[in-house]
Amino acid sequence: MKSILEAPFVRELVRTISAMYAQGWDERNGGNISILLDDAEVAPYLDLNTVLRRIPIGFKEPSLAGKLFIVTGTGKYFRNVELDPAANLGIFRIASDGETAELLWGYTDGGKFTSELPAHLMSHAARLSVDPGNRVVMHCHPDNLLAMTYVHDLDERAFTRTLWQMETECIVVFPEGVNVLPWMLCGTNEIGEATAEKMKTARLVVWAQHGIYSAGADLDETFGLIETAEKAAKIYMMTSHLPIRQTLTDADLHQMEERFGVKARAGYLD
What we know:
Strand order of the largest sheet: 2-5-4-3-1-6-9-8-7
Number of helices: 10
Radius of gyration: 19 Å
Structural class: alpha+beta
CATH topology of the largest domain: L-fuculose-1-phosphate Aldolase
Low-confidence stretches: none
Number of strands: 9
CATH architecture of the largest domain: 3-Layer(aba) Sandwich
Order of helices and strands: HEHEEHEEHEHHHEHEEHH
Distance between the termini: 58 Å
């Protein structure tokens, strides 16, 4: 059997985690990632019938029973993942009861999955109901998006339009816009349920005064969504206190729709 550390999904996850830390998005142990895996891509590296531990996930999600995930661990510093992936990551299967994680690999120091697992798994279920190709959920704390939630109206249409106006590519990258939650206590089923509901209509969900959730088909897409929104938020934070002499108009954004074959969220453009 091949070494799990050589598995493409492990190598790419470690690379992405390191890039997120380098961006400053995941201070200390802030942030978490989960990826839905196929049995076939894991089988060459792990015995799928050997369960190391069983860990309650804290809620029940029957739609995910039998599915495999690789997830960052609770209290783990992103800067340490590349040094010891086996202690900082874990691969588990959701048991048939829909409320237990069957650990197959990882968390070798006795740890477990991120405390934000409810938000991750509920978001996976929500995104799979909309787009079965969405396999990644990513959470982090980008500086400028976080700062923007202190000074900008949290109305989703207004928040989205501001980001679209900051950088030409934004409407192409996330034409469905950005959904926003007011501050809620993290690590709870309540914020997980609220995030999952928002995930049904957008791949980006901002947690006010906390961070952002992103979902996508792979790590590149999911990282890129946050990267693009964060760049737009940075431009906003650099310019919002200055006299604005010109900006992208709705007419400009309609041109982008036509040129790139995307459709902005209904009612978000005049």
